Amino acid sequence: MPQLTRHPAWTSLQEQIAPALETPIKSLFSDPDRFDKYSLKVQNILLDISRNPINDGVMNLLLQLVREAGIEQWRERMFEGDIINSTEQRAVLHTALRNRSGTPVLVRGKDVMPVIDHELKRIRVFVNAVRKGRWRGHSGKRITDVVNIGIGGSDLGPRMVTQALKPYADDTLRVHFVSNMDGVEIANVLRELNPERVLFVVASKTFTTSETITNAETARNWLMASSFDRRAVAKHFVAVSSNVEAVKAFGIAPENIFQMWDWVGGRFSLWSAIGLPIALYLGFRQFEELLQGAHDMDLHFRNAPLERNAPIWMALTTLWNSTFLGRSSQAILPYDWPLQKFSAYLQQAEMESNGKSVDRDGNPVPYSTGSIIWGQLGIDGQHAFYQYLHQSNTIVPADFIGSIESSTPVQGHHEKLMANFFAQTEALMAGISADDVRRDLTAKGMAADEIERLIPHKVHRGNRPTNTLLLDRLDPRTLGALIALYEHKIFILGVIWDICSFDQWGVELGKTLAKNILPELQSGEIKPDHDDSTRNLMQYFVEKRRQLHSEG
Ligand SMILES: O=P(O)(O)OC[C@H]1O[C@H](O)[C@H](O)[C@@H](O)[C@@H]1O
């Protein structure tokens, strides 16, 4: 029997499901202390979880459950460098990458802090050299553009953070990102650039990822086409990888390789040299601020009592809404324009980590694990999918993220934006009843029969759970804390569900099949051993392509 269902709190929580579904969330506010009890301030983030279908009894049981799952022991094991990624036999140490406290972190008896500090120093020196114009292109021109070539964890973090912190960047460098195998993306990026002034950062932990290697080769060919001198690669290419041999084989000099380690998961790696584009774009000091913010959140997670611990709260609200109440998706809705990529970032972090169906010992788990994470900027979403959030039969718990101060204040905008922010969470919880609709429409002078016809369409049943995260402002330190908050939430959920959150075997099968299919597409000889649909589609592709080519 899987761990989770063996805990006494699991059984007690089962009995709380029906009452929770029947009790309107707004009725829980008959407790005048509810907001104080269910909100807390950590770093520059106010977290409010009071608008969830969780009463004090349920909260106590959830806290009991997370204790019974051994969160305190697992947390220490993670921070202390124990081998908790059991299927790959690795430590999980993104927290060590931002460890600013000077304490050692041992992996298999060896302190990893000296190598981390050494690499951070290399990043600082390199970033300063590029930004100050001491590192120049092969022809002696200053670097003006940085292109990060990577995918998944080697793309989403730096892409999200550079956009989120754009207001903190100066004009020293522009950054671009290429992740997709579709040549359209790299072609679009290269079209705008001058090869004499570009620095490519090839970011790949394994340095075997086909999308990244293909794009890196295209970039190298593009550079060679203008320079004709192989030595140019040394001034225009650096790499971030844990596979030094493969990077060298690609032609990048060892001194241009920034290291990462097998104990950093790709989706948790922006704190390592994978964050190089962030440091190049914002300057090293701002990168350090980001690390500091994450470290501050680590300290909170590690030291605050579970009863008032932000990552624990985030995990427990998701656990209750998903595993117990069956709400399988979660929307991430930032009201900060710079957080445009935040939900895409969290999608990988959370879904790749917790989209599992067996426990650590390989036994099937009989409950749902990771949620479907999706979302986009809230204010745009209001004009697209909020109809579904307010009135569909599917309840989607949502995290609303906004700031008290805009990072780019423009007269007359921010209060209007935030009025929507507050209105939406209020509406999602409170809804509007038939009586209230009737009263409103009557006051507007509408005919009684018309009112009755419209009422069912205008009623909002409400009772839709939300978390609110209100930041002082989206600065590097606060963003670091915000990302770390979600990282720990993901970790806690994995512990409770008793799954291994740090592998991603589920992405391998498709990759292997693509490798087999490629030569068939190239040769046009489709093998008979595919299923009928795949074989016919591939055959159609090959033949139609031939025909389109011959038509010119
Ligand atoms: O950094 P890389 O080794 O190139 O990996 C890039 C990405 O691809 C893999 O398929 C995994 O799904 C991701 O976890 C990883 O971040």
From TrEMBL:
Lineage: superkingdom: Bacteria
Recorded GO MF terms: carbohydrate derivative binding; glucose-6-phosphate isomerase activity; monosaccharide binding
Residue numbers annotated as active site: 352 (proton donor), 383, 511
Cross-referenced CDD domains: SIS_PGI_1, SIS_PGI_2
Name of the top EC class for this enzyme: isomerase
Pfam families named among the record's database cross-references: PGI
UniProtKB keywords: Cytoplasm, Gluconeogenesis, Glycolysis, Isomerase
Record-stated family: Belongs to the GPI family.
Matching InterPro entries: G6P_Isomerase (IPR001672), G6P_Isomerase_C (IPR023096), Phosphoglucose_isomerase_CS (IPR018189), SIS_dom_sf (IPR046348), SIS_PGI_1 (IPR035476), SIS_PGI_2 (IPR035482)
Keyword Oxidoreductase tagged: no
Reactions catalysed according to its record: alpha-D-glucose 6-phosphate = beta-D-fructose 6-phosphate
Enzyme Commission number(s) from the entry: 5.3.1.9
Matching Gene3D superfamilies: 1.10.1390.10, Glucose-6-phosphate isomerase like protein, domain 1
GO biological process per UniProt: gluconeogenesis; glucose 6-phosphate metabolic process; glycolytic process
Primary location class: cytoplasm
Keyword field contains Isomerase: yes
Compartment annotation: Cytoplasm
A cellular component term, taken from the record's GO annotations: cytosol
Name of the protein in question: Glucose-6-phosphate isomerase
Primary role: Catalyzes the reversible isomerization of glucose-6-phosphate to fructose-6-phosphate.
